[in-house]
Amino acid sequence: MGKRFEVIDHTADVGIAAYGKDLKEAFANAAYALFSMMLDLEGVGDALCCQVEVTADDRSDLLVAWLNELIYVFEVDNMLFKRFDIGELNETRLRARCYGEKIDPERHKIKVGFKAATYHMLKIDEGDGFRVQVLFDI
After folding, report:
1. Is the pTM value of this prediction over 0.90?
2. Tell me: the pLDDT tens digits for 97-111?
3. Domains in the chain: boundaries
4. What are residue 102's DSSP bridge partners?
5. Residue 28: closest CA among 108, 128, 96, 113
């Protein structure tokens, strides 16, 4: 797979399609896309590690839960992430280590605020690798 993600144009929200050779990589690239749309990740370090674990009824719900948990950690703990190591991913559970740093308003200029990942146009496609698609409420 060449590209990690692409932005999907939508009238009121913003969406992404993320790619991976396997589902773990596609979920990690979706998380990377989320944060790269929030700010320029060039200046974000990865010295801090945060363990994230989510469960859901199926893998579509799991994708939404994963991204919403990252938005929650961003909002509550003021953490930015740029690297995602997904250790466990099955139909109903995801465990990952997320690497980043605390928000520094002097260095990190937030471009777009994200409220939540939504179920509108949500897709997980498998072919030559995986493609996941999700829209965000901004």
Report:
1. yes
2. 999 999 999 999 999
3. 5-137
4. 79
5. 96
Cα-based distances in Å from 118 to 6, 41, 79: 17, 23, 21
CA distance 38 to 32: 10
Confidence of residue 43 (pLDDT cuts 50, 70, 90): confident
Q: For 5-137, CATH number?
A: 3.55.10.10
Show the tokens assigned to 68: 């919403």
Beta strands in 10-138 (DSSP E): 14-20, 48-55, 79-89, 93-102, 116-117, 123-127, 129-137
How many Cβ atoms from other residues are within 10 Å of residue 102's Cβ? 12
Would you place residue 70 in the very low, low, confident or very high pLDDT band (cuts 50, 70, 90)? very high
- Cα-trace Rg, the chain: 14
